[in-house]
Amino acid sequence: MAIRVMLVDDQALLRTGFRMVLAAQPDMEVVAEAGDGAEALEVLKSTPVDVVLMDVRMPRLDGVEATGRICAQPDPPKVLILTTFDLDEYAFSGLKAGASGFMLKDVPPAELLAAIRSVHSGDAVVAPTTTRRLLDRFAPMLPDSGKGNQHKELERLTDREREVMILVAQGLSNGEIAGRLVLSEATVKTHVGRILTKLGLRDRVQVVVLAYETGLVRAGGGA
C-alpha cells in the first residue's frame, strides 16, 4: 500500500514541486494539500494520511501549532517539519510539539523520499546529533515549570535504561552505545524500545527533547 502523504505549505509552487517528486514514486501518493495549518486540520478530518510534510511559517495557523494539534489526536499521522534554515527555532518548537523530525526545504529529493519512508516506518529522521545541536542552542527557552513531574517520569527507568537514555541524548547511535556499555546492539535496541514505551515517547528525537527538559542532559551535551 502506498504511503499517503499530505503537503502543507502556503506556497503553491513549492507544493507543486514536492508533489511532482512524490508522484514519481511507486510507493507514495499525495492524497491531500493545504495552504495553512487550519486548512490541514480540516482536511485531516475526512482524509486518511500517513505522513504530513509541514511548513512552519504560514498564515492563520502556523505549522508548530498545527503539529501539536495533529499529534494530540488518536493514532495521528507522522509529521515531518520543513524549515528554511537549519537550527530554526521553529524546528525546535515543532519537535517539542510532537513532530518526528525536521528537514530543510532545499533537501535533495532522494533525502526527502528516504525521510518520508523512514518516518512512515516509525523512525525519526533527525540525527540525534543534529537534534542535540538544535537543543543546545534553544535549551534556554525550555520552561522551568513542571520539571519535578518530568523527573518522576524518569523514575520508571532502570539504572541501565537511564544510562542508555543519556547516551541517546548525547547523540550516540545504537552501535556506539553498545561499544560504550559493552553490550550487544540488539540489547541496546531493546533498552531504547523500553524507554520509549515507559515514557510514552514516539521516537529517539523525543527522547533527546525529554532529556533536555528534565535536565538529564544539559546544553553542551553533558549529563
Secondary structure layout plus pairing:
Elements: E1 3-8, H1 12-23, E2 28-34, H2 37-44, E3 51-55, H3 63-71, E4 78-83, H4 89-97, E5 101-104, H5 109-120, H6 128-138, H7 147-154, H8 159-169, H9 174-181, H10 185-199, H11 204-213
Parallel strand pairs: 1-2, 1-3, 3-4, 4-5
What would you call the shape? Answer: globular
Structural class: alpha/beta
Assign a percent range to the helix content: 40-55%
Q: What is the chain-wise order of helices and strands?
A: EHEHEHEHEHHHHHHH
Low-confidence regions: 144-149
- Our count of helices gives 11
Give the biggest sheet: 5 strands, parallel
Q: What is the CA–CA distance across the termini?
A: 43 Å
Strand content: 5-15%
Rg measurement, Å: 18 Å
Q: Compute the average pLDDT.
A: 84
The largest beta-sheet arranges its strands as 2-1-3-4-5
Say how many strands there are: 5
Describe the structure.
- It is built from eleven helices and five strands; from the N terminus they run βαβαβαβαβααααααα.
- The protein has 223 residues and is an alpha/beta fold.
- The chain has a five-stranded parallel sheet with strand order 2-1-3-4-5, with helices on both faces.
- Strand 1 (3-8), helix 1 (12-23) and strand 2 (28-34) form a beta-alpha-beta unit.
- Helix 2 (37-44) runs parallel beside helix 3 (63-71), helix 6 runs parallel beside helix 11 and helix 9 crosses helix 10 (185-199).
- The N and C termini lie far apart (43 Å).
- Residues 144-149 have low confidence and may be disordered.
